[in-house]
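INFO  loader      accepted 1 record
INFO  loader      residues=363
INFO  predictor   begin
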Amino acid sequence: MTPLDMSNVHIAILAGGSGTRLWPKSRTETPKQLLDLVDDEASMLQQTVQRILPLVPLERIYILTGPEHADPIAAQLPKLPEENIFIEPSPRGTAPCLGLAAMRLRQEHDGKSIMISLHADHAITREDRFRNALRAAAATARKGHLVTVGIIPTHPETGFGYIERGAPLFEEQGISIYRVVRFREKPPLKRAREFVKSGRFYWNAGYFAWTLDNLLEAFQRLLPEMYARLDTMTGRIATKSADTLWHQIHPVTIDVGIMEQARKVAVVPCDMGWSDVGSWAALYEILNKNKDGNVVLTDGEHVGMDTKNCLIHSENKLVATIGLEDMIIVSTPDALLVLSKDRAQQVGTLVEELEARGLKEYL
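INFO  predictor   done
INFO  writer      dumping tokens
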């Protein structure tokens, strides 16, 4: 396999999410990407950066985040150039965030340079496959495609969007690349089973690659008002007028605003041992279990009698359990969460309820 030239590849890591479904550990000031949930020695953001360093140096890695997380990110990545932390004034979805980043990069680099977009809060066990998929995505982007990396599904999942593949295009880095037929929203279980059985569908992890010129041409064609505001903002990011323009932008994701409508979209399939760590149940699935099937994450002690297939997280206190199965217990200094594992997706709704009741000190 011919080594791929990555010298003009830039990687943007989206690190602005709040991770509400991992409350009470994930909070507004310390969202999940800044926590060491998967590895005791590195946060999820630090793991993401370490994972891509074999591809590009720190000088070509950029973190996209909000003002409240810029300082903690700089502290976690002390060798990252300060100017590589791109700050958006407020959340407006991934489309304007990535569009502005692409414009800033094009000011300093050739428009044929490639931009890869990743998320800061995912877990990946097959890192070599992940990096090879990014190499293939970069090579495909060089051929003029807007590219997405599709996760080969391991089961019918209703919590993810799907990518439907069409005809094969060519091969890159030993991977067959396909034309994208359409992006599909999160399906009901019956439809998800049909998707997986067909072999034509991949989970949408939100990993993309484009040349700067091709991405911004798509913005100009598909989101012309947003493009005009971002174009005006470029070079004036710290000014009050730039903030005003930013707040006039209608929030939209890159999937909906660009990829679902774009021409010449390709997918790179990959089985990389991927998890979005989108809930406590998802975290349970990827962590090591003891002989009773329990995941115990505690600085204190856990004593369990007839306790099986549970996740127990505690900070500096004893947790004792009797007769529990398929439960989640998360104890922090100011909050305790107890729920059935199969309702883990509802923690985000619980956080909304806390906010509605004015309990913002717990968020």
